[in-house]
Amino acid sequence: MSTYNERLQQLFDNKGVTPYYLSQATGVSQATISRLKGDKTAKPNIATNKKFANYFNVSAEWLLTGEGDMLASSDTNVMNDNTTYSVPLLPISAQGGSLNDFVVSVKNNECEKIISPIKGVDYAITVSGESMSPEYPSGSQVLIKKINERAFIDWGRVYVLDTCNGTVIKRLFPSDATGCVVCKSINPEYPSFEVSLEDVYGVYRVLMCMSMK
């Protein structure tokens, strides 16, 4: 699956516009636009993504997640203000306890619910620590969906790993060691490390980050 910056670059190429022109049309700063185009890990907030989707006349959900139809519906955008989804906010943090323990022992109807602007989300959890800042600041909430890590991992993307030592949010890369993955932080002050998939209860793809920035 393509990254956000690849989808955004595709729209730039199709329409033949420049960051300056898009900035003038949407009110989003050129610096923000250039960062979103150039950094494969960067994602915008909901309002910025919606401005881009409206300008390019594409589905806001497709632009943000790469899922669904690219073209916006003729009568409504997939992510209009009236389309929201309720998802359980698990009472743990990314960099905290085991997600599996709560999934097994806590029923969805016992969890606090938050509103998600996109569908297909399994859970929401809160980010803790600064290792993934500035894209995933401490205190922000990430919307996640479980994947089959044995079938396919989209290297370089951000995932939540539920491990025997707790839950972590990291960019994943292949390892030279069989059955392991390399976990990298966005914040360069934090070193990379390897995790054996045998010690992983589940891998969850991060679909979106919601923060109060």
Which helices and strands, and how do they pair?
Layout: H1 4-15, H2 19-26, H3 30-38, H4 46-56, H5 60-65, E1 85-94, H6 99-105, E2 112-116, E3 123-127, E4 141-147, E5 158-163, E6 166-174, E7 180-184, E8 193-196, E9 200-210
Parallel strand pairs: 1-3
Antiparallel strand pairs: 1-2, 3-4, 4-9, 5-6, 5-9, 6-7, 7-8
Provide structural commentary.
It comes from Hoylesella loescheii DSM 19665 = JCM 12249 = ATCC 15930. Keywords: DNA-binding, Transcription, Transcription regulation. The chain has helices at residues 4-15, 19-26, 30-38, 46-56, 60-65, 99-105; strands spanning 85-94, 112-116, 123-127, 141-147, 158-163, 166-174, 180-184, 193-196, 200-210. The protein folds into two domains: 4-65, 434 Repressor (Amino-terminal Domain) (Orthogonal Bundle), CATH 1.10.260; 85-210, Umud Fragment, subunit A (Ribbon), CATH 2.10.109.10. The radius of gyration is 18 Å and the shape is globular. Helix content is 25%, strand content 29%. It is an alpha+beta fold.
Quick overview:
By secondary structure, this protein is α+β, with helices and mostly antiparallel strands.
